[in-house]
Amino acid sequence: MEFTPEKFRKLFPHLAEELGGEGTVRISGVRSEREEAERAADFQPSAVDFLRRCDTEEEAEEILSYLERRGEITHEYAERLRRQLKERGLRSFGSKKEPGYYFRNRGP
């Protein structure tokens, strides 16, 4: 059975509101490591969170080296992030997080 958006809204108004109404969450980055996703769920900054605060790829490389040196990320994960940085660019990790990001983007 196929629905037009209008028919879907008419049959399922609350679901349609949840799916596309106010409060919809846009996904702008992907976490490929389970540990990264768990840290994000616990509101602990992850490597990706730190990378999203960088202005340049050089800053991002410094962050990756620092986290790897401290043992906060594995060498393999750091290399994967470096490869993504080189191939897809800094903003492939998500939009830039400016100061005050968490105060402006709090959940409900």
Layout of SSEs?
Layout: H1 5-11, H2 13-20, H3 34-41, H4 47-51, H5 57-69, H6 75-88, H7 101-104
Summary of the model, kept short:
The chain has 108 residues and is mainly α. It is built from seven helices and no strands.
Low-confidence stretches: none
Oligomer status: single chain
**Range of strand content:** under 5%
String of helices and strands: HHHHHHH
Number of discrete helical segments? 7
* First-last Cα distance: 35 Å
* Strand segment count: 0
Please summarize the sheet with the most strands.
none
Shape: elongated
How large, in whole angstroms, is the Cα Rg? 18 Å
The percent range for helix content is 40-55%
| Structural class assignment | mainly alpha
The pLDDT mean sits at 81
Keywords:
single chain; 108 residues; mainly alpha; 7 helices; 0% strand; elongated
Give a description of the structure.
The protein is mainly alpha-helical and 108 residues long. It has a domain at 29-97. The chain is 55% helix and 0% strand. Helix 5 (57-69) packs antiparallel against helix 6 (75-88). The radius of gyration is 18 Å and the shape is elongated. The two termini are 35 Å apart. The model has no long low-confidence stretch (mean pLDDT 81).
